TrEMBL record:
Signal sequence extent: none
This protein's record includes keyword Oxidoreductase: yes
Organism for this UniProt entry: Brevibacillus fluminis
Any GO MF annotation of the entry: succinate-semialdehyde dehydrogenase (NAD+) activity
One GO term (biological process): gamma-aminobutyric acid catabolic process
Name used for this protein in its record: NAD-dependent succinate-semialdehyde dehydrogenase
SUPFAM superfamilies: ALDH-like
PANTHER family: SUCCINATE-SEMIALDEHYDE DEHYDROGENASE, MITOCHONDRIAL (PTHR43353)
Similarity annotation: Belongs to the aldehyde dehydrogenase family.
Annotated ranges, domain Aldehyde dehydrogenase: 21-476
Keyword terms, alphabetized: Oxidoreductase
Active site (catalytic residues): 249
Length: 481
């Protein structure tokens, strides 16, 4: 549909096309909707060269000057919101209303970091000796490599690009191979602001080759990556060679715990809004629902009623609640996990199958699914589902459910529903996660630090901490006498 409209990378402020191209697939139909350059080591080296050349001058600009480009970028994104949302929905599969919300979120993050960049304060520390001043400066880290995922390809791009630019870094961006066109469109708007050549560079193509090239070059001082824990571990190993800084937002196994004193209607609203957003393809999405045995049956019945009412359709179709999964490998994984659970005794309350009826048979559709009778021997309790499947487990004891929630190598997010204030604080203290919501399931805010513990990542995205991820501290002991 888009043909070669987005068939270019950006190097040193210019569009670059290659003879070799990769196809972009509409996950709702399996059809080719566009092509992008199939770049690799050579193109990535050119991008690093441009970013390295542009960095000194860009980092010396004032925070206010850098903010002006970011604010202009946000305005251009909002002015083109509908076209960008249509592209995002078609390329990624999510419902159009969700795509519109994501594009609006792009502007929110850009604007927030445009202002936060002006508040990257240093320090004056009381000296230990007479005639001395101890100073701490914050400086841009240098050229950074940004690697974005397919599930929120617009929002997470903004969460990385905006703080990098606000801090004074230049960058090379590698978007997910499933969703490169929205990245090309957003960077096109960024360059339209008159951003100096070489500050922003984008390379599409082979992820392993581009990633290894970024990490092999000592001029690239940081990698910011959102994706799987398996890939994050590879990046960590490769980063050791040049002692490269990392921000990694990785996989999760997020529980929601619903206690018997919870407002069940409020809990169901929160679970539905989180679990089935973006067809369940959310890193901090609920993976396991722990329902206290006293309210277990009531919770399952309320969830079943709501899940059965979800409309599965192409993302651009009016009234769509659930679109296709992004990639056939994601679909295969969900099928495997559900089949394993059913074989081990789980009950399918609703869903539990790939949708193959006319109009959907060539896409990557999976029915919204509710499983009951789930237990710890099932594979989906240990692996991130990353799909529209809600497994329900029961519990009776607070200490036991806390232990079960923590019995995982992951620690990205957790959710708790209770009216007991003391219990709230026990769960806050006990849950081993980087992000926790009580009586709600929304965690996305530009002013807050989002990130995981254990194998869910290192570093933080959002907040002043997200800006500091792109800066180094320089301590100066200044003797005046």
């Amino acid at each position: 549909m888009y043909g070669d409209k987005y068939n270019f990378s950006f190097i040193n402020g210019e569009k670059v096309q290659l003879a070799a191209t990769s196809e972009v697939i509409n996950p709702a139909t399996g059809e080719v909707i566009g092509i992008v350059p199939d770049g690799g080591e050579e193109l990535t080296r050119r991008a690093i060269d441009a970013a390295a050349q542009a960095f000194p001058a860009w980092s010396k600009r004032t925070a206010g000057q850098r903010a002006s480009y970011l604010l202009d970028w946000a305005e251009r994104v909002l002015a083109d919101k509908e076209a960008l949302a249509q592209l995002l929905s078609l390329e990624q599969g999510k419902p159009l209303d969700e795509a519109r919300g994501e594009i609006e979120g792009v502007a929110v993050y850009i604007r927030w970091y445009a202002e936060e960049g002006k508040r990257a304060y240093g320090e004056i520390i009381p000296a230990s000796r007479p005639g001395q001043q101890l100073l701490v400066f914050r400086e841009a880290i240098g050229v950074v490599g940004l690697i974005t995922p397919a599930n929120f390809p617009a929002a997470i791009l903004a969460m990385k690009v905006a703080p990098a630019l606000a801090a004074g870094c230049s960058f090379v961006l590698k978007p997910a191979e499933q969703t490169p066109m929205i990245a090309v469109a957003l960077v096109s708007h960024l360059l339209a602001t008159g951003l100096p050549a070489g500050v922003a560079n984008l390379v599409t193509g082979d992820p392993a080759e581009i990633g290894s090239t970024l990490q092999a070059d000592p001029r690239v001082r940081k990698i910011a990556f959102t994706g799987s824990t398996a890939v994050g571990k590879i990046l960590m190993r490769q980063a050791a060679e040049n002692v490269q800084r990392l921000t990694l937002e990785l996989g999760g196994n997020a529980p929601v715990v619903v206690f018997p004193d919870a407002d069940l209607d409020k809990a169901v609203d929160g679970i539905m809004g989180n679990k089935f957003e973006n067809c369940g393809q959310v890193c901090n999405g609920i993976n396991l629902i722990y329902a206290h045995e006293d309210i277990h049956q009531a919770l399952v019945e309320k969830l079943a009623e709501r899940i059965k009412a979800l409309k599965v359709a192409h993302g651009t179709e009016p009234g769509c609640h659930i679109g296709p999964m992004i990639d056939p490998s994601y679909l295969d994984k969900v099928e495997t996990l559900v089949n394993d659970a059913v074989e081990k005794g789980a009950k399918v309350v609703t869903g539990g199958y790939r949708i193959m009826e006319d109009g959907y048979q060539d896409g990557y559709f999976y029915a919204p699914t509710l499983l009951d009778g789930v237990h710890a021997d099932m594979e989906l309790t240990r692996r991130e589902i990353f799909g529209p499947v809600a497994p329900v487990l029961t519990f009776t004891d607070e200490a036991d459910v806390l232990r079960r929630c923590n019995d995982t190598p992951y620690g990205l997010a957790g959710y708790v529903y209770t009216r007991d204030a003391a219990r709230m604080f026990r769960m806050i203290a006990g849950l081993q996660v980087g992000n926790l919501a009580i009586n709600g399931t929304s965690l996305a805010n530009p002013q807050t630090p989002f990130g995981g513990v254990k194998e869910s990542g290192i570093g933080r995205v959002g907040g002043h901490q997200g800006l500091e991820e792109y800066m180094e501290l320089k301590y100066v002991a200044l003797t005046l006498e």
